[in-house]
Amino acid sequence: MDNRVYFVDQTLRDGHQSLWATRMSTAATVAVAPVIDEAGYRRVQLMGGGQVSACLYYLRENPFERVRLVARAMPNSPIGFGTPHRTIGQFQVVPESVRELWMRCWAEAGAKCVGINEHLGNYAELSDMVKIARRLGLIVDISLVFAISPVHTDEFYARKAAEIAETLKPDSLWIKDSMGLLTPERTRTLVPAVLKNSGNVPVEFHAHCNNGLAPLCYLEAVRLGIRIVQTCVPPLAQGLSIPSALNVERNLRLLGYQPMVDRNAMEAESAHFTYVAEREGKPVGAPVEYDAYHQTHGMAGGVISNLKWMLEQRGLQHRWEEVVEEIHLMCKEWGYPPSVTPFSQVLSVQAVLNISVGERYAVAPDETIRYLLGHFGRPPAPIDQNVLDKVLSLPQARRFIDWEEPQPSIEDLRKESGQPGISDEELLLRLLYPKQHVDAMLAAEPSRTSYPRADKPAMALIKELTRRKDASYVRLEKKGISLALRQIGGRRK
């Protein structure tokens, strides 16, 4: 068998979503993009719904501009973005015209690959989205989300892999362990089942480190025939993120495989983000000890970091264990949806309400009602009838019971917006996100694109010194080169 192993970089998407609550800036991203382009990654994942929300709500940055800037800076590395099947933005079930506009806007901004997510397993429903992606010239990846439940057996995944390969014929499908639940033992049965039923479709491997076993699972997966792995560079690897590209590359090489990446470029990428973490006081991923508790209460890394942040904002961090137990119980009641976007967010909000209000399902957001009614898709197992009855008895549930998804055209939606002259990108953001956040992003200064780089320490030092206002004279000397900075009339020369 071919011993070459290809890498997909998730640092710019999953890494900071898992460890930095999705707060990486465009400037920090663009600064290192040329270095990442030298690494030889099969694909660089950049955008998903979480990144768009963070750009609008917290960073006040244009997410499409981020893609344009990064695409120009890394012409040799295909940029990937993710799209859910039914829900985009604020977990809205959107019409087909908006789904197509979503993919078209990313493609026009410079993305080359789309990962289509259908986490409930209704893959046959993705055929129209795959056709749209093909028309746009996009590479298509389909994720096969791993979960532990009575319905998520190896036979279940073998059946779904065959369905994806035969019906959708994507460019790749990937085993996606977002919750970090896989063990080497389960990897030994799951990977062969998927590979056997995936036909000629390449299979990628993606597993989070929540239980401390993902690095071992990666090596086991490659031994079993996987030839594409998804990784992050430190400090955005390990912890709640996915394994370190540097560690996986070294181990594969020691085991006789040929990692198809440039280690020097990955080390430079890692040095940059280590500098960003130190400069901005952000956490650093570290190996996690194995905890059997996680096997029955696992959540995706991005879910954990954002849920902890949400509880801290409400002064409820001391009730973390109660909320986790509640989510575990709700997963069973809701038909075992994997705890990943968007279901993880809906589950998290409802769990916090159940715990803080004191009576389960006494209050429920619209998203809970719509999920239980099947608006987000058919769950893997039946929903608990008692829960469904209680939620549907809430006053606001009436307006959703007989709901049918409208299918307006983009022209209709543009007219309804009252702003017929706006761009497709602005229209899309206004259709999917709250007006005040879109307005604030558009009113903000353009995204900064300059950020000191750790692989060029002298230049980074100079840039940092020029930002300081408490020094009027600085002199640097190195190997016969002398540089003096003097502040004259409020300006440095």
Q: Could you please describe the fold and organization of this structure?
A:
This protein has 493 residues and is α/β, with parallel strands linked by helices. The protein has three domains: 277 residues, TIM Barrel (Alpha-Beta Barrel), CATH 3.20.20; 103 residues, Cyclin A, domain 1 (Orthogonal Bundle), CATH 1.10.472; 36 residues, no CATH class. The protein contains 22 helices and 14 strands.
Briefly note the CATH topology name of the largest domain: TIM Barrel
* CATH fourth-tier homologous superfamily of the largest domain: Aldolase class I
**Rounded mean pLDDT score:** 90
Q: Output the CATH class name of the largest domain.
A: Alpha Beta
- Structural class by sheet pairing and helices: alpha/beta
Straight-line N-to-C gap: 61 Å
Helix content: 40-55%
Quick structural summary:
With 493 residues, the chain is of the alpha/beta class. The protein contains 22 helices and 14 strands.
Considering the chains and any ligands shown, give keywords for the structure.
Cyclin A, domain 1, 22 helices, 8-stranded parallel beta barrel, alpha/beta, 13% strand, TIM Barrel, 48% helix
Secondary structure blueprint with pairings:
Elements: E1 4-9, H1 11-19, H2 26-37, E2 43-47, H3 49-59, H4 63-73, E3 79-84, E4 87-88, E5 92-93, H5 96-109, E6 113-117, H6 127-135, E7 139-145, H7 154-168, E8 172-177, H8 184-197, E9 203-207, H9 214-223, E10 228-231, H10 245-254, E11 258-259, H11 263-280, H12 294-297, H13 301-313, H14 320-333, H15 343-357, H16 366-372, H17 385-392, H18 398-401, H19 410-417, H20 424-432, H21 435-443, H22 457-467, E12 473-478, E13 481-488, E14 491-492
Parallel strand pairs: 1-2, 1-10, 1-11, 2-3, 3-6, 6-7, 7-8, 8-9, 9-10
Antiparallel strand pairs: 4-5, 12-13, 13-14
Helix pairs in contact: 1-13, 2-4, 2-11, 3-21, 5-20, 7-8, 8-9, 14-15
